[in-house]
Fold:
Amino acid sequence: MRVAEKVAIVTGGLSGIGVAVAARLARDGMIVVAADISTQSMALDRTLGIHPFRVDVTDQDSVATLVQAVMTACGRLDCLVHCAGIGRVLPFLETPLETFDLVLKTNLYGTFIVGQACARVMAAAGRGAIVNIGSVSGLRGNAGRAAYGASKGAIVTLTEVMAVELAEHGVRVNVVAPGPIETPLTATQHDADARTSWIEAVPMRRYGRPEDVASAAAFLCSDDACYITGAVFAVDGGFSGGGILPRSKRQETAS
Ligand code: NDP
Structure:
């Protein structure tokens, strides 16, 4: 099958990492539905590259409407890259239950709801690729991430279960776990101190670009990844594999 015949849904597709993923998959020749909460839906037209569509990933009816619209307009769904998510940075002892609930609802329940709706049509067709966007905060204990880290850690386990159960239906499911990436989310959630801490903890000493995450997601969606499922791909400048790092130039200057 040529890539030009494929159809993808990218949730969170109108901001940050999602924009880069949608652009990359469209450039690779796919029809892309960029589904996000802060947009109006546009009539789906098979001849266009990227289509905005309104969805709330925490609402099963809203997600069902999205998947139905894609199937009606395109008759197929090949890829899902689930980028929609929110971040909150708060100490564990000060995290209100409401915040924990909101983050779990959006990040974890959203992954379950969207993944299940898309996997049902993919399994029926006997093929598909799902990429869930996790986080290095779901792999390591990062301060301030009680809610966020718990939601992203659970996404890894959910993905592994999906991969195991959907393998016989020809559907692959993987996680891309980004480190710090320059997006509207980090612009609001990372203050100057946080940015310094991240840069000192990342062996490559910089934030990543949304396009760096998009290339990993595009690979996992592609037939080049046909024997990869249930995997976690960190796109993090070496953060999650790191331990004690050489002193940075900034630290040397300060001491
Ligand atoms: P952005 O905030 O730039 O993009 C996330 C998008 O998801 C926004 O458009 C947001 O809309 C949308 N969204 C939020 N809630 C819902 C919902 N209920 N239904 C549908 N859409 C929703 O964030 P990033 O691009 O930075 O993050 C994308 C993903 O990558 C997230 O899952 C995030 O956790 C993950 N990630 C990001 C990292 C980073 O450093 N940037 C690092 C590790 C993981 P609105 O703006 O209106 O809320």
About this structure: The chain has a mean pLDDT of 94.
